[in-house]
Structures are given as C-alpha cells and as structure tokens.
Design goal:
Layout: E1 2-7, E2 12-19, E3 23-31, H1 33-37, H2 44-66, E4 75-81, H3 85-102, E5 106-110, H4 111-122, E6 130-135, E7 140-147, E8 150-156, H5 162-172, H6 179-187, H7 211-227, H8 233-259, E9 263-266, H9 273-286, E10 290-291, H10 303-312
C-alpha cells in the first residue's frame, strides 16, 4: 500500500510517499528555519503563508521522487494535531482537496504518533511493544507503545518541553534559533561541571520539569550582567545540556528496565549527540536494546506521517472531509 503523507504542523512543509509503513519511497521537506531565525523563533502567520506557497511544489516533488502518480496512491495521510493551528490547517485542507479530487481515503494522523512511526522506517524489524521517549520542540513525553495504534503516556514534561528549554536558554546565551544544535556546539568546548544547576522535582515518577532549570540559567546570566562579571558560556551550556540529557535518559532507561522492554528515542531532540551517547551507555549497562530514527527523520517530516497513516488506516474508516485540526490534543 502506498501512502502519501503531508506534514505542516510547524515550520516545515513536507510530503512523502511510503510503502506498507516501512519502505521510504520519497521524502521532501521545505524548511523555513532561515526566515524564522531572523525573529528568534517561529512566527505562526509567516509559517502558515509559507506552507500555502510551498505545499503544491513539495507534493509534486515527493510523487516525482517516488516515481508514482497520484492515481497510484492508495490513501492520503495528513497531520491534524497538535501544532500551530494555521499551519496545520494549511496542510490538512490541502490533503482534503487531494483526497476528494483523486477519490482517495483521508487519514488524520497525530503528530506524535508520526514521530514514533519514524522508528519503523529506520528499523524494519522493530515491532511493539517498546518504550519511546518522544522529545521535540513542543513535546517531551515518555510513551509505552503497546501496539501500532495503542499508546500509554506514562511521563511528560509538566511545564516547558525539552526543545523549548533549549531554545530559551540559547536565546539567553545570545545564540540563534533553533537553540538545540547551537547549545550542543557551544557545550562541546565547555565543562559540564562548571555550574551546579538544580535538579527539578516532579510528583510523577517519570515526569520531568525544565522550567526551573531554564530559570536558573537565566538568573545566573542576569546576575552576572548586573555585577559586571563574565559568564563561562561554554561551561554553562554544557552544564545545562548534561542536566537535561541526564533527566531524559534516566527516565527512559528506568521505565524500559522496569517493564523489560526495548527503548527508543524519537523527535527533533533525538538528534542530540549527548542524549544518544548517554542513553546508549545506560542501556548497555542494563542490556536494553535501543533505537533511534535516521537523523533525517528526527525532525518534522512527512515520511513519519505516511508511516503512521499506514498503521492507522482501516478500510471504510477514513477521516471525513469535515475533519478539523487541533492545536492541542493528547495522544
């Protein structure tokens, strides 16, 4: 079965063709990072306009790259939640139009289900159940993947997501958007023990909190400025990154170990080198299998939406053309 995926939840306009949920036939992404970097973050109105401008060309390119026509596609899958509402509507409504015009079923896909499905494109042998840490710009959730469409969230960020914390700390340190890669570059030359940062407490066993950690960094920088003191920017970046990574890796490995399950990390932050290294180290000590998506599939892309769409599609149960988009929606 060939699924055409459409993704537009934030600032990437993407289209992809995936066969049987596992074989990547094409993946095309038009990114807006350079434009939004001028403003220090994503501007929703600009993102929505660019999706409208880019989506036809991106979809044509994905079909051409896969060597198929729209008539050969079996279904159209599109992200409907969560994300920037205007951006979501741009992609979803375009997918509705394709679905109606071509007479193809429409599959509405949750964005986080897509990130988890990106693992199946990298590891054709991977099957549920497993424990997945989904970490991106707006989400940090620990998910027990019971089956392809059966998910239980057992832990989450109770305030800022990891990606949001990286962006805000990067801005405080005078680094450009997106903050995650910039923090990692700066941290590479720093001492992770340069600053003693707090380890935020959460009531939930697998929950994490990054707001207090972010605030501690901001206060350190502001206090130093008021006193006319120099901040060890590389050391502070390294201390922050190690604290965030330690919290995420420990929660994932603990949950996987207690349940006797393989572990996986997906989402934009899963490209972080320290997070991969730390989790591999912890899993190695406990004999836990660990999975990461290809780095090209970690950020927002339509291949993961098409893969998830394959597992969520049931003949005769496609999404209606009245399907709405939602800025916030639980898994």
């Amino acid at each position: 079965m060939l699924i055409l995926g459409i993704e537009s939840s934030c600032d990437e306009t993407a289209a992809s063709v995936v066969q049987d949920g596992r074989k990547l036939c094409s993946s095309v992404v038009a990114t807006q990072i350079a434009e939004h970097r001028l403003y220090g973050g994503v501007v929703p109105e600009i993102a929505s306009r660019r999706h409208i401008e880019n989506i036809v060309g991106v979809t044509r390119a994905a079909l051409d790259q896969a060597g198929v026509s729209l008539a050969q596609i079996d279904a159209v899958a599109a992200t409907f939640a969560p994300g920037l509402i205007g951006a979501l509507l741009a992609g979803l409504n375009f997918a509705k139009g394709l679905s109606y015009a071509a007479g193809k079923p429409l599959i509405a896909v949750h964005h986080l289900h897509g990130h988890i499905a990106s693992l199946y494109l990298t590891y054709p042998e991977l099957k549920p159940p497993f424990m997945a840490l989904v970490v991106s710009g707006g989400h940090s959730q620990l998910v027990h993947v019971r089956d392809y469409t059966d998910f239980e969230v057992i832990g989450r960020a109770v305030d800022d997501a990891a990606g949001e914390a990286f962006d805000k700390v990067a801005r405080t340190l005078g680094l450009p958007y997106p903050g995650g890669p910039e923090i990692s570059k700066l941290a590479a030359g720093g001492d992770p023990n340069a600053y003693h940062l707090p380890l935020p407490h959460t009531d939930g066993q697998y929950d994490v909190s990054f707001s207090g950690l972010k605030t501690a960094v901001i206060n350190l920088v502001n206090t130093a400025k008021m006193k006319g003191e120099e901040i060890d920017r590389a050391g502070l970046a390294a201390s922050f990154e190690h604290r965030v990574v330690g919290m995420l890796a420990n929660r994932l490995v603990q949950a996987a170990d207690e349940r006797g399950l393989p572990a996986a990390i997906c989402g934009g932050v899963s490209v972080n080198g320290l997070l991969r290294h730390k989790t591999q180290e912890l899993c190695g000590k406990r004999g836990i299998s660990l999975y990461f998506p290809e780095k090209s599939l970690c950020g927002d892309n339509a291949a993961m939406i098409a893969a998830a769409g394959f597992y969520e599609y049931k003949p005769g149960q496609s999404a209606p053309l009245s399907q709405n988009a939602f800025a916030n929606l639980e898994m």
